[in-house]
Amino acid sequence: MADFGHELWFGAFLTPDAAGHHRIVRQAVLADEIGLDIIGIQDHPYLPSFLDTWTLLSALAGRTERVRLFPDVVNLPLRPPAVLARAAASLDILSGGRVELGLGSGAFWDGIAAMGGPRHSPGEAVDALEEAVAVLRALWTPGEDVRFDGRHYRLEGARPGPFPPHPIGLWLGAYKRRMLELTGRLGDGWVPSSGYAAPGELGAMSEILDAAAERAGRDPAGIRRAYNIEGRFSGVAGEGFLDGPPVVWAGQLTELALRHGMSVFVLAVDDDRDLKVFAEEVAPAVREAVARERGRATRSDAGRPVEIAGGTPAGAAPGKGPGPGLGTGLDDATRPRLPKRDIAALTPQQQANGRRLVLIHDHLRRELTQIRDALGQVAAGRSDAAALRSMINQLTMRQNYWTLGTFCASYCRLLTTHHTIEDEHMFPMLTAAQESLAPVVARLEQEHEVIAGVLTELDAALVAMIEDPDRLDGVRDQVDLLSDVLLSHLRYEEEELVEPIARLDLDI
Predict the structure, then answer these.
(1) Contact 17/49 with Cβ under 8 angstroms?
(2) CA-CA distance, 486 to 314, in Å (whole number)?
(3) Do the Cβ atoms of 43 and 76 come closer than 8 Å?
(4) Which of 103, 327, 342, 433 has the most Cβ atoms closer than 10 angstroms to its Cβ?
(5) What does the pLDDT read at residue 392?
(6) What would be the CATH architecture of the domain defined by 9-245+264-271?
(7) What is the pLDDT of residue 476?
(8) Does the domain at residues 326-504 carry the CATH identifier 1.20.120?
(9) How confident is the model at residue 406, as a pLDDT?
(10) What is the domain partition of the chain in residue ranges?
(11) 333: helix, coil or strand?
(12) Among residues 146, 174, 173, which one has the least CA distance to residue 160?
């Protein structure tokens, strides 16, 4: 249980009441304008008083520009995952990469059955969700036709696509042990609600989730923690959770971020005033408090190799010494640092402008996680093939290798393009606007060269693996090294550039 260092997101959980459809659209536009990060819509297709969630999300995507959108959470028994994969990818394309996907195993089984859906036992519901995750990811991965023979879902040659422009996070609504363990093994995020999981219960739930992630060879820090919350703004602090003035809210949410790694807070709200108070008073105060604590932690480690989640020094592959030039290339102790100004003093629009750099970087972080997931799938495929020694498993394994190679190559091109845009456009703009940034920019440019070298080695390892599948470990080593150096670089760039970009009002 700890702060995992994720960017903090604040959002609105809007009730899809059909009679209040004008209010919903108005509040979604307001959330977009005042700097909230995400909008969640519950999904209960069996309620005739509610708008259909996917139709509503599509309409909101067309009326907003920057805020993320997600079903919070999808009622999976009434949303076949193959169709859901097409719907989510389509909306991600149309919205410019602003979709995340909350998944629920199902509840209110009478309503589901009344709509023609299955009536699962708790165990069956968890099994079906696990199969759905596999179906979704298979249809978002380039490759040949997909075949999947599950107990609850089948694919008999479905063609993958369309492909979302950013890695859509699969955030699982989980409370009990099996669902928490599933989230730890396979989920990109965890999204409980305070009405079902009080703050005092999050610690024990997190321990189950984190242990499952570690058993699966995953870093628990890679799992986003979103929390659906509800409360009451008042002039005097009450005894309950989120009951009092904004300063009380800020203190309680800061505690959840630093102690339990919660980084997404989605407020159930139907009142415009409460929405504004949350966005303009609570969110900035939490961001400032968390940034201050993270800054203290960073300063306490000054002079030591920078460590990312998992404990590996930047520039060193696990179990190995640093690669050529990497021992000093990303040495945090030698990185130029500038005095920091208080970003909370800037306007919400300026702060949002600065956070665009973090949004871009988050795409790269999520895609890096997808590469790691693909590595795990390949490793599992290799083990199955060795045990069963059947032609069909050999073909599946070769398809897995091909998919991994294509995905890694695409990621390398994306990362190289991102760095080229920074070097040729953003960095000159920054140094022209503030000369004192020149040493930081020069260092970032040097680190781009270091990362380019790692990408070259990863490409070579992929070629070797395709020729000899037993050389998967070489790809794993290079992905570990890329993860270490890239995450360290992105964190340094954000620490030094987000505030200047916001304050100078630069268009990146």
Answers:
(1) yes
(2) 8
(3) no
(4) 103
(5) 24
(6) Alpha-Beta Barrel (3.20)
(7) 85
(8) yes
(9) 64
(10) 9-245+264-271, 326-504
(11) helix
(12) 146
Single-letter amino acid, residue 101: L
Closest alpha carbon to 474 in 395, 408, 396, 389? 408
pLDDT at 431: 87
For the CA atoms of 254, 255, 260, 264, the dihedral, rounded to the nearest 10 degrees, stands at: -20
- What six digits make up the tokens of 490? 């992105």
CA gap 184, 186 in Å, rounded: 6
Q: Find, among 359, 344, 358, the residue nearest to 280 by Cα.
A: 344
189 strand-pairing partners: 171, 224
CA angle 336, 339, 341 (to 5 degrees): 135
**pLDDT of 384:** 31
pLDDT of 73: 96
Q: In whole angstroms, give the CA distance from residue 139 to residue 146.
A: 7
- Half-sphere CA count of 157, side-chain side, radius 13 A: 0
β-strand partners of 391 = none
Q: Which helix (H) or strand (E) holds 229?
A: strand 224-229
pLDDT at 405: 65
Residue spans of alpha helices (H) in 187-321? 202-215, 246-260, 272-277, 283-300
pLDDT of residue 393: 30
Residues 6+ apart with CB under 8 A from 219: 213, 309, 310
What are the tokens at 288?
């400032």
Per the rule left: phi > 0, alpha: psi between -120 and 50, beta: everything else, 142 is: beta
Output the pLDDT for position 298. Answer: 61
The stretches in the chain having pLDDT less than 70 are 1, 298-329, 380-407, 409-411, 413-414, 508
* pLDDT of the residue at 398: 40
The alpha-carbon radius of gyration of the chain (Å, integer) is 23
Q: What is the pLDDT of residue 348?
A: 79
* Pairing, β 9-14 against β 101-104: unpaired
